[in-house]
Amino acid sequence: MKIAVIYASVGGTTRECAELLKKELKIHDVELFDLSERDPDLSKYDTIVIGFPIRMGKAMKKARNYMKTHLEDLRKSRVAYYICCGFVDCFDEYAEKTIPDVLYERAVAISCLGGSLEPSRFKGLDKLVVKAVRAEILGGGENGEQRKDMSLPTIMDENISQFADKIRCVQ
């Protein structure tokens, strides 16, 4: 199977997940495409995977625009989506809000692969926001202790493996 993994990334987590997914799908012909670099010819692939991060409750604009611009081609293709976000409990809301209905309904798989709040991965305003969110999680309790209801997000290897299994399953 020939697979295109198309992703948009701010801090590198979505790119890292694309690379881990490629390793999971190693028996297939997998090509990675960063949306900030090039736009692949979708007709060359049996399966298209689109990955994007969530920032401030919204998918990265490049990913949203890509899905709108290529809606008809994606609608005719075998497509899976992954989201990288720090708040996994909001994943369903993010997916439903971001992926157009016609694509959402036909998706082979939609998954959250985790996230990262590592300030060194970001620049400018993104870095400040990440630091603030991280501080709230690590020291936001009543007495400055780590919040018991939250933990720092990480890439979820098990979710990547399960996502790859769904992509491999040709129906």
What does it look like?
The protein has 171 residues and is of the alpha/beta class. It folds into two domains: 2-116 and 154-168, Flavodoxin domain (Rossmann fold), CATH 3.40.50.360; 117-152, no CATH class. It is built from seven helices and six strands; from the N terminus they run E-H-E-E-E-H-H-E-H-H-E-H-H. The longest helix is centred in the C-terminal third of the chain and has 16 residues, at 124-139. The radius of gyration is 16 Å and the shape is globular. The protein starts with a strand and ends with a helix.
Task: Note the topology.
Layout: E1 2-7, H1 13-24, E2 29-34, E3 47-55, E4 58-59, H2 61-69, H3 71-75, E5 78-84, H4 91-98, H5 101-104, E6 109-114, H6 124-139, H7 157-168
Parallel strand pairs: 1-2, 1-3, 3-5, 5-6
Antiparallel strand pairs: 3-4
Helix and strand content put the structural class at alpha/beta
- Which CATH-level-2 architecture of the largest domain? 3-Layer(aba) Sandwich
Task: Give the DSSP E fraction (strand runs of 2 or more residues).
Answer: 15-25%
**What would you call the shape?**
globular
Write out the CATH superfamily name of the largest domain.
Answer: Flavodoxin domain
- The number of domains is 2
Summed over residues and divided by their number, the pLDDT gives a mean of: 89
Percent in helix:
25-40%
Order of helices and strands: EHEEEHHEHHEHH
Radius of gyration equals 16 Å
Task: Give the class-level CATH name of the largest domain.
Answer: Alpha Beta
The largest pleated sheet is described as: 6 strands, mixed
Q: What is the terminal separation in angstroms? A: 13 Å
Total strands: the figure is 6
Q: What is the name of the CATH topology of the largest domain?
A: Rossmann fold
Number of helices: 7
- Spans of at least 5 consecutive residues whose pLDDT stays below 50 are none
